[in-house]
TrEMBL record, chains A, B:
Its EC number is 2.6.1.83. One of its GO terms (molecular function) is L,L-diaminopimelate aminotransferase activity. This is LL-diaminopimelate aminotransferase. The modification N6-(pyridoxal phosphate)lysine is found at K249. Belongs to the class-I pyridoxal-phosphate-dependent aminotransferase family. LL-diaminopimelate aminotransferase subfamily. Substrate binds at Y15, G42, K109, Y132, N187, N292, R388. InterPro entries: Aminotransferase_I/II_large, DapL/ALD1, PyrdxlP-dep_Trfase, PyrdxlP-dep_Trfase_major, PyrdxlP-dep_Trfase_small. Residues 35-405 form the Aminotransferase class I/classII large domain. The gene is dapL. Keywords: Aminotransferase, Pyridoxal phosphate, Transferase. GO terms for biological process: lysine biosynthetic process via diaminopimelate, diaminopimelate-aminotransferase pathway. It comes from Phocaeicola salanitronis (strain DSM 18170 / JCM 13657 / CCUG 60908 / BL78) (Bacteroides salanitronis).
Length: 409, 409
């Protein structure tokens, strides 16, 4: 009998977001006429920027003619997209990268999930708490997270609490950790790290020989000019950090699937015997073996984000969502709720009133205001007592949702 | 220091197809005016079927309007595509599947590479020799293949030779093996398995509690009516086999990226303690954690393959390539070369004359006929002394290539 990877059996039965959907569905069955407003799952609602649409039409046409048809592309992405990324996302911020350090993919979820494949199964892991659950689950399923303890934590994971006491900014762990996940702007708390705060992490990593997994999926939402957009803006970061970027939230690519991963050539891991091994060729080998490139049509769409028109259109989308976030923050604050985030990220992290649990607060808003949110406890033990609200909605609907919340609370 | 997965370091430095490209490039440098004809890497050349192009244009338009925009889709694919797959690829052959048994993805390379994630690292592996190298490499990189031995074989892999003596049809292994990879129509030999031959494998798997990994990427090329298109045409196969399918070679999707994996609900693996675990939910959990669905635009393109016009257009493409294969087989046979395949697959497996090695024969054809092929030894030790030729080319160029080969040999 072929044996299964039993680490998979340790995963909670259902993916957290599916549990939320089940609760929503059972509400819908009993309230078939309810007018639900969704501020839950972080999916965008605005259509793709027109520049991307036009570029993808052109690419589809190319695929329909023999002289312009493209078959297998480079596993790590076409040079036209890689060069646009370097020129527009990095050079203006003083970061210089080589094309061989960029890996285009079908999205950050694949990359943050699969990056563990090139690392030993027994490295120790550090995560902020709360955290995007995929980071944990991908480590659980290969055994790296260890065993689930009674307190809901995993035995080989160091948790760095993000609480009101520390303004939801994690503190450096007291012990050495091999690999630390950081997501900034943060999902779910919507907070950001200043340059000084981010420098602390890079310095910790340099001193402790720690690998930083830096997820910058929400980078485009940064509004304050002094917040770093890339971890490589910090000196020394190329020696310690992998950065993940996504076009999903930047340009509405959640259904089109494109992102990229940066692995600088200075970045190394080690063998048990102490030899240093560059990670760039390891990841290249991984992608050559277990991936076959991103759709040409998709890559042409992503390239269009960097044209002058594309940039304007993306900026307008981001502004639309961030206006929503401001509106939400004002409304929630006006009724005495405590919120973090929402200034440089499309997420608000809302404290439940009256000591309610995440799920109780979630159900209260679902049943009394017909507003769907995400229970904070799904993001880790320190998410208990919070909800995550997202600004990805139509302005009018968000206004309506805020009115309902103000009435019901 | 974060430790790397040292199994990756066991992989030969370069992916085999890159080595071929390097040889071709160095030829081009010294022969800048040479008119190379490529019968090597298995990439298609005909543009996408018009039905797919039209469907993708429509989908791109949908993504540009708020009312029809689609964000995150189901990780395992949209029902419209899954239902089309069941209705057109399986039901006509007497195979009944449920939508929950189909997983749409960005291609078979990802799926055949990642499927090992849900299986223990110490299952024993059986492969035909020669074989598509990705099956081996993905097992090497997680440690399942064991150590590379002096004879070029891996210690935890059972090799089943495909040689002229057995008409390139592998024989059942004498020992029990946990997981066996089968690819039919076969890459690289171009051979197929009759129903009786395939039944032997299913029965072996049922008797030995073996998991079959069945790659049917070239299914659309089958010409003889009695050759099974799906392993599930064999009784009992749902209990023992995972089937992979790809739109890459069926409809020219190599640059668009779409395929699917079938995991029947009867199929189980085991725990060390002997408990049987269904594999369908395990793979679903894998895809929910480490994948975020295939582009909506791509899935609409794939769906169009199953329309009446799409079917006609696909059929014409397949016929074009298979006419090439016939032409090649006739020409090669006429000059006394021994060939397998080319009747139900776009590949020909050609024995090098005069005891030449694969690389020597490759270089001879490159330098004397300016024809690029693939050295058989890249597919395993028993590929030594062979070349793989593919029928993916323009008819006129293939004719020209055959003339040059006839002159130079």
């Amino acid at each position: 009998m072929a044996l299964v990877n039993e680490h998979f059996l340790k995963l909670p039965n259902n993916y957290f977001f599916s549990d939320v959907e089940k609760k929503v569905n059972s509400f819908k069955v009993t309230h078939p006429k309810a007018d639900l407003i969704r501020l839950g799952t972080g999916d965008v609602i605005l259509p793709l920027p027109q520049a991307c649409i036009e570029a993808m039409h052109r690419a589809v046409d190319e695929m329909g003619h023999e002289s312009t048809f493209r078959g297998y592309g480079p596993e790590a992405g076409y040079p036209f997209l890689i060069n646009a990324i370097i020129k527009h996302d990095y050079n203006p911020r003083g970061v210089h990268l080589e094309p061989s350090e960029i890996f285009v993919s079908d999205g950050s979820k694949s990359d943050t999930g699969n990056i563990g494949d090139i690392l030993r199964h027994d490295n120790s892991i550090g995560v902020t708490d709360p955290i995007y659950p995929v980071y944990i689950d991908s480590n659980v399923s290969c055994g790296r997270a260890g065993e689930l303890l009674a307190d809901g934590k995993w035995s080989n994971v160091v948790y760095m609490p993000c609480l009101p006491e520390n303004d939801f900014i994690p503190q450096l762990p007291k012990q050495r950790v091999d690999i630390i996940y950081l997501c900034y702007p943060n999902n779910p708390t919507g907070t950001v790290l200043s340059k000084a705060e981010l420098r602390k992490w890079v310095n910790y990593a340099l001193e402790n020989d720690t690998l930083l997994i830096f997820d910058g999926a929400y980078e485009a939402y940064i509004q304050h000019p002094d917040i770093p957009h890339s971890i490589y803006e910090i000196k020394g970061a190329k020696k310690v950090a992998i950065e993940f970027r996504s076009f999903s939230k930047t340009a509405g690519f959640t259904g089109v699937r494109c992102g990229y991963t940066v692995i600088p050539k200075e970045l190394t891991g080690g063998t048990l015997a102490g030899k240093r091994i560059p990670l760039t060729p390891l990841w290249r080998r991984h992608q050559e073996t277990k991936f076959n490139g991103t759709s040409y049509i998709t890559q042409r769409g992503a390239e269009a984000i960097y044209t002058p028109e594309g940039k304007e259109q993306v900026k307008a989308h981001i502004q639309y969502y961030m206006n929503n976030a401001q509106l939400m923050k004002r409304a929630l604050t006006s009724i005495g709720l405590k919120t973090a985030g929402g200034e440089d990220a499309p997420y608000l992290w809302v404290k439940a009133p009256d000591g309610l649990s995440s799920w109780k607060f979630f159900e209260k808003l679902l049943y009394e205001a017909q507003v769907v949110t995400t229970p904070g406890v799904g993001f880790g033990p320190n998410g208990e007592g919070y909800l995550r609200l997202t600004a990805f909605g139509k302005k009018e609907r968000i206004q309506e949702a805020m009115q309902r919340l103000c009435q019901c609370l």
